[in-house]
Amino acid sequence: MSQRTIVHVPEEIGNKYRFAVIAGKRCEQLQKSAYPKVEVIVPVDKHGAAQDAPRLASFWSQVSIREVEENRIGWEEGEVVALDYTTEAPISIE
Question: What's the longest Cα–Cα distance across the chain?
């Protein structure tokens, strides 16, 4: 896989920050032996044997970015709860 700097953020995700968070979480899952949802080509060394790249974060990050770009990862937006802890206290000047 070649290194990329430009990614396509799907409209459902909306912004680059959320894209990075989703791809990062998916990268963690892939490193812990989750099955990839896109075709993965494992790099080979000069002798033709498969490299140990599937353990590297750089390898799985590219796979996770492709999965998120192609909308193959399910995600849901968490609910934001605003807590109001403000109290009013009189200020006395003595």
Answer: 84
How many folded domains does the chain comprise?
1
**DSSP assignment letter at 30:** H
**Among the listed residues 15, 16, 21, the one whose alpha carbon sits nearest the alpha carbon of residue 5:** 16
Cβ contact 25:76 at 8 Å? no
Residue 1 near residue 59, CB atoms below 8 Å: yes
Structure token digits, residue 14: 């909306």
Q: What is the pLDDT of residues 54-67, one digit of tens each?
A: 567 788 888 999 99
Contact yes or no for 27/19 (Cβ under 8 A): no
Summarised one tens digit per residue, pLDDT across range 23-40 is 999 999 988 888 899 988
What is the domain range of residue 75? Answer: 1-94
Give the amino acid at 55. Answer: R
Tell me the sheet residues that pair with 50. 44
